[in-house]
Amino acid sequence: MKISVLLILAVFSNLAPARKKRLIIDTDMLNFDDDPLAIGLANILQSWGEVELIGMMSSVNSRYAPPAFDAINTYYGHPDIPLAIQKPVDNRTQWPEYLQYGDYLTGLTYNFPQDIRDGMNALDPVTSYRYLLSTSADNSITIAVIGFFGNIFRLLQSGPDQISPRTGVELLSSKVRELVVQANEVGYSYNTGTHDAAFARVVLNWWPGRLTFVSDDVGGRTIIGSRVTTELDTVTNPLGYALRANIGYGAAHEVWDAATVYYAVCGLDDVFAWKYVPGGRVSLNESAFASWEKDVASGVANSTNKGLQNSVEFSIPNATFAARLENTLLWEPGQHIPECRTWCRN
Question: How far apart are CA 155 and CA 238, in angstroms?
Fold first, then answer.
């Protein structure tokens, strides 16, 4: 993804209305298997005409994250998606407590076509968010947070600037149709409590609109990889390479983030159902422990929230969904698009 003023202006000034869902992914991709699969899934569903991926943000500081994003996007024919990362960048490629999962960031950076080269060349997340939101129609953006909440927290604190006279609060309130998060609506979550609990607590306790949780139970029961690691060419396909490098040949693993992106693009589809009756909302305490709040007097969810927050659960066997997801991830550019499918039709 070449970064130039003309390209940025061209991307951000494209105000033509579109019927496709418009998606921003905010990810902590480092050395877990599910982040590259989530990004690949979004690209595949864009190729199938179901979504427009308009921006990607890194919530970790690895200089290798944006080039890895770009390698995946470029492979699927979408090389100019705006990418952003918080500065200063660092050289991390693995979480030190998860060294059993192999590094794929450097391989994606150096072995696959991409032209951003280094995270230093990527945009600032708050700047990118403000451009993307301010140049979009009201209630038109879906944000999928499959990582930490620092970027949205900083956007929330932002004030008027040369990009927009609106504050971050005003932009998020008016432009975002739905915030989809990979996190638990009850209990602790890796994404809400690991990085900085205050970021998730402030964002999620404030969120005024539609907010959907795709919990660890959903992602943890979505196990794939045996086909991706054996049937995709690790030299040419970035997903095949990333997953093989990360978990090994023929292995399978949970894919929390890919399940989350599936919901973010496809909605409930035939896969999911709402977990709660309408009206409840989440509340996070100081340590980001989440509770689901209901109307204590009536024993039902708080009706003042009008059903804008919820969590999803499976409505079909989890193995059926996992098989569909892995089969989708095997799709490669130039192959037939399954137009006759009955699922994920926006």
Answer: 31
Q: How many CB atoms lie within 10 A of CB 120?
A: 12
Q: What is the pLDDT of residue 164?
A: 98
246 in Cβ contact with 31 (< 8 Å) = yes
**Residue 301's beta-bridge partner residues?**
294
Contact of 35 with 253, CB cutoff 8 Å = no
Is omega for the bond preceding 88 within 30 degrees of 0, making it cis?
yes
Nearest to 76 by CA among 327, 334, 255: 334
CA atoms within 13 A on the CB side of 33: 28
Tokens 């490098």, located at residue: 245
pLDDT at 214 over 80: yes
- Reference 18, options 48, 54, 42; nearest CA is 54
- Start-to-end CA distance of the chain, whole Å, equals 28
Strand (E) or helix (H) holding 144: strand 141-146
Q: Rounded to an integer, what distance in angstroms lies between the CA atom of residue 5 and that of residue 168?
A: 23
Residue 70's nearest CA partner among 26, 119, 8 is 119
pLDDT, tens digit, 9 for 90 and up, residues 24-40 = 999 999 999 999 999 99
5 burial type by CB count under 10 A (0-12 exposed, 13-18 middle, 19+ buried): exposed
Q: At what angle do helices 65-75 and 238-247 cross, to 10 degrees?
A: 130
